[in-house]
Design a protein that fits this description.
The complex is a heterodimer of chains A (446) and B (267). Chain A is an all-alpha fold and 446 residues long. Chain A contains 23 helices and no strands. Chain B folds into two domains: 181 residues, no CATH class; 57 residues, no CATH class. The longest helix of chain B has 10 residues. Classes of the chains: A mainly alpha (446), B mainly beta (267).
């Protein structure tokens, strides 16, 4: 009787699990999206990490707490920007997998996140696929795999995953990856709609970590800016900081946004706030641009020196390669180093849109326009609605004798956002005017 | 050995339900932490355990306890924000009459925040039987983390408590590494064959039946580790006269007790 009872309970539980996707499919969707109170979980992060470190020390064979700790190290990295936390996360995830090699989905995903942070996308994809093999119904693992495929320029593979949407009416994680795909493949309106809906859903959940809620608003701001909707971008950046004031990545993108509008004091303020938290070369570059615009040339020189020092001392695992290459290309300095970094980035990622763009732009900055052209063509092969990509491709086209294409791309960049860059937007307008004038005189434009 | 594995396999999957007699009480064999995507995302709705036992100091009273919000790290209970949309219910059936609930006790927070007030409704007959419920008569309000006796004599408490459940979950996942039904019937191989027992002479007794010792069952002899020992839960506890569980004023016999959480959106 007891055996039958236990078997019955087990069978019932397995049936319940098997039916779970159907149950959640038919769950009534949330009727409204009322913003929930912000959970300031980040204030407890250090204490939580210390708590789990203590358990792991006490129970070295506990694979569960070690993978939870791996996840919390990554959370702390996202909140505080200590790259050492990524190494700690990697070590804890590896320990957990060693203790439980099979079915350890959470540890495999944590390890994939660490490799992703190091821009070791291929290793990350290996572990994401291990996670999927252990738990094929894990939508989060599939979404991360799609994201990694995009980082490697494998857009058809990413789409093959993303078109198999998981059951259930709401999945902000999935939709955020799908939005990235839409953004890269020329459907920015769809991308914006997905992110705005997702941000409303996560905002209605008081248990969503503050940094995650903030992230959705950062993405909404980025997409709005790319789409030329500066008022929405400004508002979304402010909401982002209300939810998590130390969002250093968000502050960096906010600095880029103000820089595009030539609002130099606000650029400085956002860049400084980001630099205090995590001085990525990209945001140091925005600060240097602002300093020059505000006639603080000595300060700008010091910032440039700091970027150079970061290049030599702190470029952990090469994660800043692209950022440094782009900044040097923009400034026209250290171009040999820029090319070396652009090549490393391209080797890491393969045929990825922004890796192609960086290669093309650096080669262009070196005057090697014919070599730049194939990369530039590849960078816009999906008609990504990013005005900077369009501008770069247009200038390369112009220098390789493709003036019709150059004119079309310059017009596209300005149509997407007339304020896409403090220097390039004005340059694009001048080039359009010049090409239009020449077009009237020359009916044989190539 | 097979029996032990089977119990291990079912333990984490069991639904929160316990059928018990107030007079011949058996320990509830159920616990559940984070076992569906919905409750993982909404820990305030995640019931971990339900308990019922006579008050040791007053056998005329019964204590009902519902634990929810699993895995609150020790020392971090002050950061838990309650959700006024969640309705917590004890449902009690008089099994001699019907398996359906004859009595409900309902509780919800007033407003959100880490230290809210609460309202208790009932105990009384439910307005409706089943999964869609409306509130019954209010019996009083009370503060967070403060044992309170209401006007109807019911004592009530909501606040953090150490998780009383014991589970060597790390070892469990080494025995049963794969809970994914899609991989059946060929799940990945286990890396352990039994739970850890601190001594070979430790007797194995299940529901009053002896199955020998850890050594005689070839179990692993190693120090077990309770994953939950460092974690807290939120507890909703009521103590009331047993007679209040029978709406007609009759003496309750064998009862069925279960607990639910619900939200207006139907989750």
């Amino acid at each position: 009787m007891r055996f039958r009872s236990i078997l019955g309970i087990t069978a019932g539980a397995i049936i319940a699990l098997a039916l779970w996707p159907a149950i959640i499919t038919h769950r009534a969707p949330a009727a409204t999206f009322t913003p929930a109170p912000v959970m300031r979980d980040y204030l407890q992060r250090d204490a939580l990490v210390a708590f789990e470190e203590k358990i792991v020390r006490r129970h070295p064979t506990d694979q569960i707490t070690s993978r939870m700790l791996a996840g919390n190290y990554m959370n702390r990295f996202r909140e505080q920007g200590d790259i050492g936390d990524v190494a700690r996360s990697q070590a804890m995830a590896e320990r957990s997998i060693e203790l439980q090699p099979r079915g350890n989905t959470a540890a495999q995903m944590a390890l994939a996140s660490a490799y992703l942070t190091y821009h070791n996308f291929r290793a990350a994809l290996v572990h994401e696929r291990d996670a999927i093999a252990g738990e094929p119904s894990n939508a989060g693992a599939w979404a991360q795999a799609a994201s990694l495929e995009m980082e490697l320029g494998e857009y058809p593979q990413a789409y093959a995953i993303l078109k198999k949407r998981p059951l259930g009416p709401e999945n902000p994680t999935w939709d955020s990856i799908l939005a990235r795909y839409d953004e890269l493949t020329g459907h920015i309106g769809q991308a914006r709609a997905l992110i705005e809906r997702s941000s409303r859903i996560v905002d209605a959940d008081q248990y969503t970590p503050a940094i995650a809620r903030s992230w959705y608003h950062m993405r909404a701001a980025q997409l709005a800016w790319e789409d030329g909707d500066n008022a929405t971008a400004d508002a979304q950046f402010k909401t982002m900081l209300f939810l998590y004031p130390d969002n250093y990545m968000g502050l960096m993108y906010q600095a880029r946004f103000y820089r595009s509008l030539k609002e130099w004091h606000r650029t400085m303020a956002a860049a400084k706030a980001a630099i205090e938290l995590y001085p990525l070369p990209q945001v140091l570059g925005y600060q240097a641009d602002a300093q020059r615009a505000l006639d603080e040339s000595a300060a700008a020189e010091r910032t440039d020196a700091l970027i150079r020092a970061e290049q030599r001392l702190f470029n952990v695992q090469g994660i800043n390669d692209r950022l440094i290459a782009n900044y040097y290309a923009q400034r026209g300095v250290h171009l040999k180093d820029a090319l070396a970094y652009a090549k490393l980035d391209h080797e890491q990622r393969g045929n990825e849109i922004y890796a192609d763009d960086t290669m093309g732009w650096v080669l262009g900055a070196m005057g090697r326009w014919n070599q730049a052209r194939p990369y530039a063509e590849q960078s816009v092969r999906y008609d990504t609605q990013d005005p900077v990509l369009e501008y770069h491709a247009a200038i390369v086209a112009l220098h390789t004798g493709h003036r019709h294409e150059a004119l079309r791309r310059l017009k596209m960049a300005l149509a997407l956002n007339p304020h896409f860059h403090p220097v390039y937007a004005g340059d694009a307008r001048r080039e359009v005017a010049a090409l239009m004038r020449r077009g009237n005189d020359d009916r044989t434009l190539p | 050995m097979k029996l032990l594995r089977l119990i291990g396999g079912s333990a984490a999957l069991l639904l929160i339900a316990a059928v018990l007699s107030l007079y011949a009480f058996h320990a509830a064999r159920a616990s559940d932490h984070q076992d569906s995507p919905t409750v993982v995302a909404n820990p305030m709705e995640d019931i971990t355990d339900v308990f019922a036992f006579p008050d040791p100091a007053n056998p005329a009273n019964v204590v009902l306890a519902m634990d929810f919000y699993p895995l609150i790290p020790a020392g971090m209970t002050g950061n838990i924000s309650f959700d006024p949309n969640v309705l917590y219910q004890f449902k009690i059936a008089n099994l001699a009459a019907s398996p359906n609930e004859a009595t409900v006790i309902q509780m919800k927070a007033i407003g959100s925040g880490t230290s809210p007030q609460f309202i208790l409704f009932g105990p009384s007959a439910p307005n409706e039987v089943g999964t869609t419920n409306t509130l019954v008569k209010q019996s009083g309000t009370f503060a967070f983390n403060s044992p309170t006796t209401l006007a109807n004599g019911v004592q009530v408490f909501v606040g953090p408590r150490r998780d009383p459940f014991y589970f060597d979950l790390a070892q469990f996942f080494k025995i049963v590494p794969d809970r994914n039904y899609q991989n059946q019937p060929n799940p990945p191989a286990a890396s352990a064959t039994s739970f850890n027992f601190s001594s070979g002479t430790q007797p194995i007794v299940l529901n009053g039946t002896s199955y020998g010792t850890a050594a005689s069952n070839s179990c692993t002899i190693a120090q077990p580790s309770d994953l939950l020992q460092n974690y807290n839960v939120e507890s909703f506890v009521v103590e009331l006269p047993k007679t209040m569980l029978e709406p007609n004023g009759l003496t309750p016999g064998k009862i069925g007790l279960w607990a639910t959480t619900a939200t207006p959106s139907g989750q």
